[in-house]
Amino acid sequence: MQQEADGQTDRLVRNERRGIGLALIVVFVLAATLIFGSDTRRALLAAMAVAIVTGVTWLGRRRPIDPRSDTPEKRQAVMHDELRQVAIAHAYKWAFFTLLGALATFCLLSVIVDITLPAQMLAALTVALGVTAFLAIFLFFDRD
Amino acid sequence: MKGEYLANRLKVRRAEKNLTQEALADLIGTTRKSINAIEMERMVPSTLLALKLARALDTTVEQIFFLASTNP
Questions:
Q1: Which pTM was predicted?
Q2: Element (H or E) spanning B41, and its range?
Q3: Distances in whole angstroms, Cα of residue B69 to Cα of each of A63, B4, B45, B66, B72
Q4: Which residues of chain A neighbour B49 with C-beta distances below 8 Å?
Q5: Which of A32, A33, A34, A20 is nearest to A135 (CA)?
Q6: What is the pLDDT of residue A103?
Q7: Residue B9 CB: number of other CB atoms within 10 A?
Q8: Which of B31, B34, B40, B51 best tests the A interface by mutation, with the highest count of A CBs <10 A?
Q9: How far off is chain B from A49, nearest CA to CA, in Å?
């Protein structure tokens, strides 16, 4: 029995995953721009983020989804997919523990080593780490 | 200690009905990815999805899902 490797629902799922993957890369690059201080590096990383967004958008346009197949039922099936719900639950849990672990490690390190980070940057990095961990874990558990 | 896990005969039942994963997914309003994950026993479906699967394959839940023992 052959599988329909390129069904319309599969393409919807792939598009969703591509969008999430893109968000992951952008958040990761933005976090990197925060970490690397020099203006040149920041500009380079920001340019990289723009290039990634442009590239992925262009790739997505090469094979558009047939609008007749993009029905509300199919979209609902993708959004309420059980594997997706399970992946979201796993991602919430593990992203939370990743954040706790990272903050605990940071606290311990700050006792041993003198770390001087502005509160704003620390908050931004915490958010970036949480989002990155959530998206990466979600993509892992939601894989085919 | 001997453990138990939820095994299934979904692939066999689906083949008997000559359905692809995509066709079965469309019948019950889910995605091929979920059907594949259930068949590979990477995911335990909800009761609702199990009942929908049984209805789509004209069988009972017990005919598709059963308890299997892990090796000690």
A1: 0.77
A2: none
A3: 46, 4, 19, 10, 9
A4: 82
A5: A20
A6: 92
A7: 16
A8: B31
A9: 30
